[in-house]
Amino acid sequence: MSPEGLDDGPKLTALxxxxxxxxxxxxxxxxxxxxxxxxxxxxxxxxxxxxxxxxRASPGIGxxxxxxQGADDLLASIGFVPDTIARDAxxxxxxxxxxxxxxxxxxxxxxxxDHALLTPAMLSWFMAHxxxxxxxxxxxxxxETILAAYPKTTRTWLRFGDGRFSGCNLFMLRTxxxxxxxxxxxxxxxxxxxxxxxxxxxxxxxxxxYMSRLVTLGIMLRLLGRRTGTMLGVVDMPFAEAAIDxxxxxxxxxxxxxLRMASNG
Length: 265
What we know:
The protein is an alpha/beta fold. It has one domain (12-252): Spore Coat Polysaccharide Biosynthesis Protein SpsA, Chain A. The protein has helices spanning 27-32, 47-56, 71-78, 93-104, 120-128, 143-149, 178-190, 195-202, 204-212, 217-228, 249-264, and strands at 12-17, 41-42, 45-46, 61-68, 84-88, 108-112, 136-142, 158-160, 163-173, 232-236. The strands form 2 sheets. Strands 1, 4, 5, 6, 7, 8, 9 and 10 form an 8-stranded mixed sheet that branches. It has a two-stranded antiparallel sheet with strand order 2-3. The termini are far apart.
């Protein structure tokens, strides 16, 4: 598929990151009595299955890849989902994405198993706005959008001169140069226990610009793009729910409340 026309030609491959942290059981999975966090029941349905159903219902998605430890068993436990294949996770999210890029190429849509509120409408919006020249694109939602719908929610905010944003666990790796971004991510993961080393990788200009809270999101993307030798982009999502995943018990309560409201509406 041409990166200039994501709606034309062959359909996208979508990657669902469903790996667990190595060395310790996820507390939410333990509390729910399931073997894997991706199987956490959300309003009675394993959250991974919710994500897969949203992807399968999206006209722009073709092949779906689920990457996790014991991915074959994980898929078997939720039943058959057409055109879905399993791959073992590679030890960390960045290494897994790098491995999948090498196998499946670009463009590659990436999301996560805990994106339980993902819908075909979100996917269509994101894919429709990923055209252009960016090598890699991330979905974000503004604080205004999120708090207008859910004023009491607690999110992790990225703060810039033009506002606060929350990530939406939805990415498009559009061109082969996106591997540069993934390699940069791998370097940050490798040094995650060494903040000064991470700061050096990000670069003093970008770091100081972010800490000043004066730089806009667009300028920060250009700075990081220079660092990685890529063009980076974002899609501002008009869906508050796109930024709400299931990371904590409070998230689970909120997500199930949103699903109840949707089913009653």
